[in-house]
């Protein structure tokens, strides 16, 4: 889970908007300390959403979006959560891993691990491959 800790939150007031596959959001940039699991990412920039014209957030089981893309693709060239995790030395290994549960009837939707991986979700060896398109996690 991701939580804002509201320790010294600042609002820049700079407008922001994101258009995505099935909708868009708009609001303004703010900064706060953000808890990602047991990590505390200090002074993380984010968008406080004030307008969500679609039903995306109402129809799904989530409250927001945690951007893990590259800075090159971020709105307003914002520093991403992952870049701040690395620059603040919050993880020993500069990797993160995803496990997506494909069993829709399960209560557990998936898992993200920052700084490593969870061995209960794979068998065998990992193979590291280079990113083939800068700006995306395309391999």
Please name the defining characteristics of this protein.
single chain, 139 residues, mainly beta, four-stranded antiparallel beta sheet, disordered N terminus
Q: Your description of this structure?
A:
With 139 residues, the protein is mainly beta. The protein has two helices and six strands. The protein has helices at residues 56-59, 81-87, and strands at residues 2-4, 10-20, 23-36, 39-51, 96-100, 110-114. Strands 1, 2, 3 and 4 form a four-stranded antiparallel beta sheet that branches. A two-stranded antiparallel sheet has the order 5-6. The longest helix is centred in the middle third of the chain and has 7 residues, at 81-87. The protein is globular and about 50 Å long. The relative contact order is 0.15. Residues 1-7 have low confidence and may be disordered.
What secondary-structure arrangement, pairings included, does this model have?
Elements: E1 2-4, E2 10-20, E3 23-36, E4 39-51, H1 56-59, H2 81-87, E5 96-100, E6 110-114
Antiparallel strand pairs: 1-3, 2-3, 3-4, 5-6
Q: Topology as H/E string?
A: EEEEHHEE
Number of strands: 6
Low-confidence stretches: 1-7
Strand content is: 35-45%
Radius of gyration: 16 Å
Query: From the helix content, strand content and strand pairing, which structural class follows?
Result: mainly beta
Shape: globular
Estimate the helix proportion, in percent. Answer: under 10%
Number of helices: 2
Major pleated sheet: 4 strands, antiparallel
CA(first)-CA(last) distance: 27 Å
Mean pLDDT, nearest integer? 80
């Amino acid at each position: 889970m991701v939580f804002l800790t509201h320790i010294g939150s600042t609002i820049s007031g700079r407008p922001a908007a994101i258009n995505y596959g099935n909708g868009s959001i708009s609001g303004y940039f703010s900064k706060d300390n953000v808890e990602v699991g047991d990590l505390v990412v200090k002074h993380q920039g984010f968008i406080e959403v004030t307008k969500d014209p679609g039903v995306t957030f109402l129809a799904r089981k989530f409250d927001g979006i945690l951007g893990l893309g590259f800075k090159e693709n971020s709105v307003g060239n914002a520093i991403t959560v992952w870049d701040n995790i690395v620059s603040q030395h919050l993880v020993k290994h500069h990797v993160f891993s995803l496990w997506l549960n494909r069993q829709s009837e399960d209560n557990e939707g998936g898992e993200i691990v920052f700084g490593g991986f969870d061995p209960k979700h794979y068998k065998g060896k990992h193979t590291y491959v280079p990113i083939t398109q800068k700006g995306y996690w395309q391999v």
